[in-house]
Amino acid sequence: MTIFIPTPLRSYAAGKDTLEVSAKTVSGALDELTRTFPDMRKHLFNGEGKLRAFVNVYLNDEDVRYLPEKEATAVSASDTLSIIPSIAGGRRPLERAGLRRGSSSPSAIRLSIGW
Amino acid sequence: MATATAPVELPELTKDDLSRYSRHLILPEVGVEGQRKLKAARVLCVGTGGLGSPLALYLAAAGVGTLGLVDFDVVDASNLQRQIIHSTADIGRKKLDSAEEKLKALNPDLHVVKHDALLTSANALDILKDYDVIADGTDNFPTRYLVNDACVLLGKPNAYGSIFRFEGQASVFATEDGPCYRCLYPEPPPPGLVPSCAEGGVLGILPGLIGVIQATETIKLILGKGEPLIGRLLLVDALNMRFRELKLRKNPECPVCGEHPTVTKLIDYEQFCGIAPAAKEESAVKNGIPQISVKELKRRMDAGEDLFILDVREPFEYQIANIGGKLMPQNDVPRRLAEIDRDREIIVQCKSGGRSQRIAEFLKQAGYAKVSNLAGGILAWSDQIDPSVPKY
Lengths: 115, 392
Known about the structure:
The complex is a heterodimer of chains A (115) and B (392).
Chain A: E1 2-4, E2 18-20, H1 26-36, H2 41-44, E3 55-59, E4 62-63, E5 80-85, H3 93-100, H4 106-111
Parallel strand pairs in A: 1-5
Antiparallel strand pairs in A: 1-2, 3-4, 3-5
Chain B: H1 15-20, H2 22-25, H3 31-40, E1 42-46, H4 52-62, E2 66-70, H5 95-106, E3 111-115, H6 124-128, E4 133-136, H7 141-154, E5 158-164, E6 167-173, H8 181-184, H9 197-200, H10 206-223, E7 232-237, E8 242-247, H11 269-272, H12 278-281, E9 285-286, E10 289-292, H13 294-302, E11 307-311, H14 315-320, E12 326-327, E13 345-349, H15 354-365, E14 371-374, H16 377-384
Parallel strand pairs in B: 1-2, 1-4, 2-3, 4-5, 10-14, 11-12, 11-13, 13-14
Antiparallel strand pairs in B: 5-6, 6-7, 7-8, 9-10
Helix pairs in contact in B: 4-5, 4-10
């Protein structure tokens, strides 16, 4: 099956946007992904090995959390697995805080790059 | 289905309206009645940046009667690559004034309401309550959750869009039966884990693609026509030009729109997103890492102190501008530790201080005793020390 790797995680996956795996279940596929790219593990799973709350995993177009067997769901070669992390884009909140405090220093203005 | 606005009496179309909107009027899905709905509609664009630019321009062109704009920012040269409502001559002007001018030039009958403010828990409900549809073109997690919760509490539909590099997401949230943003992401990522567009970059055209999708959904909601993006997340991959769609479900346990909501009024969203209160950010130590200002660094360099400046940006950034630090892109640091002298004082530096903070924390964990982060990065250096250092 094909795993789609989203842009924010590609730097932990040697820049790849997809990975072909031959796993039998969703969790098997995620295992194979993190075995191939160990740096990705901490971005997907918390210390207890559970998927992080801000990372959604979809088998084809279905959220794995809503599948009856969840991560134990069987997968076939034609399935796709998509990892959908939250993206906000734009400037870092810390930078805009500088502006909100009424700071008008050039650096605060410059840093507020906005989308 | 869609949330059409149904005021008691729709405004009449003038003779000028009939000619201006003739291509709408001959569409069975719009027609005279639909155009009158658009004329009566009030839409709030949160942000007049990359997403807000095409969104506001198309809504103004389409004949939406009232457009509210929320922004507190000023036009910067680096905005113009994607924020097409602003022009070179607008650099330094308030985005609200610049946007209003373009929108009124396009459609003089448009009523523009300017909200010159940062949207906060204190003002959000008051600002949002007068609008029929909210179009979320914000750029950070605290404001996203704030807009979402305010929309749910007020029962307003939220045309959502988000972008990063070549990738975008769009959906319609917070309609009565559909999911909200919190059903999709109950919790925000910890600060620093998801790179911002300022750090990661964004293709200038991408907010155009996504903003126009938000505008399309907004118009459909007003008309009450078509199949809105409710319960669906549209993913746009501009690099491969692939559009995919995922199913979104309403989470019965959602803290704001679920069966037993725990969020019944607006909360402190900076705290919710793990961002320290403003006063704390400026303190000299963040997460155990001393923050050094560019002025302090300059003073110490001039005094001839032995400092190891570690520049963790990418080579192409270093090529644009550098302050003479040792270049080691952030992802290379873990396997190149041998090149970083443990006995010297290390100042980690990047573009604006985000990546360098994370690497400084990493180095501290790896046993480096004297590590500081250059607050504000090379942008602050350019602003406060040496304007000849180009900004990008």
